[in-house]
Amino acid sequence: MTRLSLDEVMANVRDLPTLPLLVTELISTFGQPDVSIGVLAAKVSNDQALTAKTLRLANSSFYGLQSKVRTIEQAITVLGFDGVRALVTSAGVMGYFTGGRIDFDFAAFWRHAVGTALCARAIARRRGCNPELAFVSGLLHDIGRLVLATGFPALYADVIAHSRANDCDLLDAERLVLGIDHAVVGRALAQHWKFPDPILLAIGNHHAPTPADLGDMPSVVHIADAIVHALDLGGIDQERVPSISQPVWDSLHLDNAALRTILSHTEGEFGKACEILIAST
Amino acid sequence: MISRYKQLDLDDAEAGMILSVSVLDHQGSVLMQAGAAVSEGALTSMRRRGIEQITVVDDAISREELDAERERVSARLARLFRHPGATRADAILHDAIDAYRLEALQ
Question: Which residue of A172, A194, A221, B42 could cross-link A206, Cys pair, CB 3.0 to 4.6 Å?
Fold first, then answer.
């Protein structure tokens, strides 16, 4: 067994290229209502790849806009500041961890992440939580796994092999093989990147929300994660649904009708969202 | 995975088709409920609202195909929910997914 310390993992992270400045700036403004829309629009418009992806997402069927948006300013008018900020942040972070030559199924990782983002947003709408914050939290909930898999590829291959051989959750395999898990690492990365608290807590606590997290973002992501595994959207044969915490489930008050809507919208939006978000990562 | 739910570009949809998933606007409000038949007027209205795709009931799948798929879906769900120490919430989600999948195979 290998014991990785959080310091070792984070030293590795500090050697990575920094996130695009625009993305870190946007992330830091989550929760601030008084950010200048003109400034944001100008910044995003300077990055052609991000602009193109954001506009494709805004114009895709899962936003159902009445007319096509062609500029970031129009997208902000129609989707709201939060909506555009979530899309740009998602596109920016997803482009950050590149495949390289390591043996890790990035496509399956991002399919699960996109599914969880959509599902968390659908749950948040029912719960009256901020849907765009839920989208980003869902998208990034397993980001610690990418830090481990790209920073320590050989060790992480052992984690995956252990999980397959013993048919156990990756979280347990990480703890056993590495002595650290992706939730702890993800939280540290979220701190390093100065993510706002709701996202940081969702990443750090999504496997085991604390009593203070009940009904809040970590609970939303805990349930969204389980639902997406249960919908089998990752396309992996050895898929398994993680066990759901009963108090967390109860805290969201999802009746059968709500659940049915969440399932159909998550699945209905999934194909298009993957096509756009994952296409050029 | 076969399903009686078929996702279509709005341009390929025809009046009389039955919606299998509700159509939402960009704020998540329901424009048309699942189960409703689509009329020419509704198609025009959805086009005006920028809806690009809808999901409708597919009538072209045989009874035998549906039976075989139902068995496959139940077996797959049992495998997905194979964790030990299941909670009541796990059972609720299992049942909800089961009902949701079978609904698409009626």
Answer: A221
Name the minimum distance, in Å, from the CA of B85 to any CA of chain A.
8
B37 and B76 share one domain = no
Nearest Cα of chain A lies from the Cα of B9 at a distance, in angstroms, of 10
CA-based nearest residue in chain B for residue A238 = B80
Helices (H) and strands (E) in chain B, counts: 3, 4
Q: What is the largest CA-CA distance in chain A?
A: 57
Domains of chain B: total: 2
Model confidence pLDDT, tens digit, residues A19-32: 778 888 787 777 67
Domains plus CATH for chain A?
Answer: 20-95 (no CATH), 99-278 (1.10.3210.10)
Count of CB pairs separated by less than 8 Å, A with B: 97
- List Cβ<8 Å contacts ≥24 apart for B100-106: B100/A260, B100/A263, B100/A264, B101/B73, B101/B77, B102/B70, B102/B73, B104/B3, B104/B4, B104/B5, B104/B20, B105/B2, B105/B3, B105/B4, B105/B66, B105/B69, B105/B70, B105/B73, B106/B4, B106/B66
> What digits encode the pLDDT tens for the residues B78-94?
999 987 678 899 999 99
Q: What pLDDT is recorded for position A1?
A: 62
State whether B9 and B37 are in the same domain. yes
pLDDT in tens, A241-255: 999 999 999 999 999
Give yes or no: residues B31 and B73 share one domain. no
Note whether B13 and B39 are same-domain residues.
yes
